[in-house]
Write a structure and sequence with these properties.
226 residues, 10 helices, Multihaem_cyt_sf, single chain, mainly alpha, binds heme C
Length: 226
């Protein structure tokens, strides 16, 4: 075949192609790093709240159990949020003199919940269930960090799909031996102890064992997507 382009033009074309491919790779790499970075997922950023509530005071200093305010966390999909009455059990005497408690008064008068801003909302197409995780021995701390030390609630983990899958591929090493241990702030693994047997004690294992139905792997799309 006769030469259509000069040798110089050919070389320039090759150079341009290599530079283009290199730039595309770099851009993809940067996009991947950005997608995995915590800042993209609002990790560590508090949300504006109607009342300057502090977990560090209530769950930390006062030592209240998480279930005192998030009552459905062991059984339901949603952890549940405290009602105005829960707060007023202790704050009834100071609320009238303190403007920062005004949203509690409004909520009580309207019979409506306090409008807390969420820092953890997942997209609509994703399914999540607190009870299943708590019963399997996944601690609040594993997903939410040391909440009882937070003056303002922030996300401790990105909660993106890759993060969920990191555990769903092999949960055993990250499980505690019981649901109660999932609430124990001082729980530490016994050095040298084997991890909980894969699947042992989990709802899925129990639910399907007796029916003779195969347990779907936790990585299947339909586990988390509607
Ligand atoms: C006295 C009541 C109370 C107790 C006890 C309590 N919380 Fe909360 N929690 C709240 C309130 C009020 C909010 C909403 C305001 C905020 O985000 O700070 C909240 C928000 C949260 C959120 C963020 C929810 C979202 O929508 O993103 C998490 C996570 C959380 N709590 C975990 C815990 C854990 C873990 C414990 C136990 C260590 C705990 N809480 C104990 C009252 C409480
Ligand atoms: C078990 C009793 C108890 C409950 C329930 C309770 N609080 Fe408190 N709260 C306290 C005490 C005690 C303090 C004062 C701590 C201090 O000043 O060191 C406090 C302090 C506060 C403060 C002042 C924080 C600051 O930075 O000075 C706010 C705001 C507050 N609580 C909001 C709430 C809200 C909202 C709820 C319900 C979700 C709630 N509390 C539930 C006992 C309680
Ligand atoms: C496996 C990870 C994981 C564990 C373990 C976990 N959470 Fe959550 N939590 C989440 C995710 C994800 C969301 C956002 C849920 C959504 O948007 O549907 C959330 C949301 C919340 C909320 C906001 C209300 C709601 O249910 O949407 C509260 C409060 C909360 N968690 C408290 C807790 C407490 C208390 C514990 C420990 C008993 C706990 N969580 C354990 C991942 C976890
Ligand atoms: C630290 C480990 C861990 C993390 C992180 C985790 N999971 Fe799970 N998840 C589990 C375990 C263990 C089970 C099995 C519970 C059972 O067998 O009942 C489970 C079960 C589930 C189920 C099935 C519940 C049922 O029984 O129907 C859903 C849905 C789910 N996870 C969603 C998520 C999502 C979404 C995320 C990320 C936001 C996530 N999980 C993060 C450990 C984890
Ligand atoms: C353990 C739970 C879990 C499993 C299993 C899972 N996903 Fe997801 N997926 C999520 C979560 C959480 C999000 C939302 C956060 C995000 O975009 O990463 C998500 C988001 C997505 C998105 C939207 C991404 C975007 O940019 O908006 C797609 C598409 C998706 N998943 C496809 C899949 C497919 C296909 C499978 C099966 C191979 C799968 N997922 C399995 C948890 C899961």
């Amino acid at each position: 075949m006769p030469q259509v382009f000069s040798r110089r033009a050919d070389a320039r074309l090759h150079l341009a192609l290599w530079v283009g491919a290199g730039a595309a790779l770099l851009a993809a790499g940067a996009a991947f790093v950005a997608a995995r970075a915590g800042s993209t997922w609002a990790v560590g950023r508090p949300a504006a709240q109607p009342i300057p509530y502090s977990h560090a005071i209530h769950a930390g200093q006062l030592g209240l159990d998480c279930r005192y305010c998030h009552a459905s966390v062991e059984s339901a999909a949603s952890a549940g949020m405290p009602t105005a009455e829960t707060c007023l059990g202790c704050h009834a005497r100071v609320w009238s003199v303190d403007a920062q408690f005004a949203p509690l008064r409004t909520a009580l008068a309207l019979g409506a919940p306090v409008e807390w801003s969420s820092v953890h909302r997942l997209p609509e197409h994703v399914r999540f269930h607190h009870g299943a995780h708590t019963q399997a021995g996944v601690a609040c701390e594993t997903c939410h960090g040391r909440v009882w030390e937070m003056p303002r609630t922030v996300k401790a983990e990105p909660l993106h799909m890759g993060w969920c899958l990191d555990c769903h591929r092999d949960p055993a090493p990250r499980l505690r031996p019981s649901a109660e241990a999932a609430f124990d702030r001082d729980w530490r693994p016994v050095p040298g102890a084997p991890p909980s047997a894969p699947g042992a004690g989990t709802l899925a294992a129990l639910r399907y064992e007796h029916l003779g139905v195969e347990v779907p792997p936790l990585t299947r799309c339909s586990i988390c997507h509607k």
